[in-house]
Amino acid sequence: MTGTATKTPETEGSKRNWMREHSELGICVLLALLGVLVLSDAASISTDFTQRGPVGPKTVPFLIGGLLLLVSVLLARDVLRGGHGESETGEDVDLSAPSDWRTVLLLSASFLANAVLINVIGFPLSGMILFWACAYALGSRNAVRDPLLAAVLSVVTYFVFNNLLGVPLPGGPLMGVL
Questions:
Q1: Closest-CA residue to 72 (of 39, 18, 35)
Q2: Of residues 149, 168, 156, 165, the one with CA closest to residue 124
Q3: pLDDT at residue 50, as a whole number
Q4: In the UniProt record, does the keyword Ligase occur (predicted)?
């Protein structure tokens, strides 16, 4: 033998077993990539017109990106030291049940409709449609309460972002009324 390693079924099995036991490392890699993406995007944010004090528009994205990297490193350390996530044992969780694709598709359609409609009819109306459609997709069927709560939530969100935080949102036809 010349000292070259040959692959045996035992070494392949142990490698596969190690990967299965440390599968949470994939989440660590995903978190690290997301952190790098957030940090790189935050570095490219222009601050010339939005800087209003010592805390600018880059602060929160840098904080979130740094925390994502920190969590990925801490989670990787825990996984490599033998830690692992607990299996799902909740009494209301049926792991053998199929995925509820109808709900996923309805939620996706409501977010897409909001993205398409926000510049056409404004945030208060598109937000109302979004909030009501999400409530409907998640099982609420109250014909009076749901649209009313969606309208209140949408208008409050509009005022918080537009007036308090200074983030301009399209008002649409309700611009003169609100």
A1: 35
A2: 156
A3: 56
A4: no
Query: What is the Cα–Cα distance from 141 to 17, expressed in whole angstroms?
Result: 48
Q: What pTM value is reported for the model?
A: 0.54
Closest of 119, 23, 123, 125 to residue 75, by C-alpha: 23
The label of the residue with tokens 């918080």 reads: 160
Model confidence pLDDT, tens digit, residues 66-120 = 999 999 999 999 988 888 777 666 667 666 778 889 999 999 999 999 999 999 9
Hey, what are 27's tokens?
A: 């989440």
93 backbone φψ class: left, alpha, beta (φ>0; ψ -120 to 50): beta
What local confidence, expressed as pLDDT, does residue 87 receive?
A: 67
| Span 44-56, pLDDT tens digits | 987 776 566 677 7
Residue 178 pLDDT exceeds 90: no
**Pick from 156, 154, 135, 158: nearest CA to 146:** 135
3-state percent helix, strand, coil for the chain, nearest multiple of 5: 65, 0, 35
**Domain extents for the chain?**
14-47+55-80, 101-174
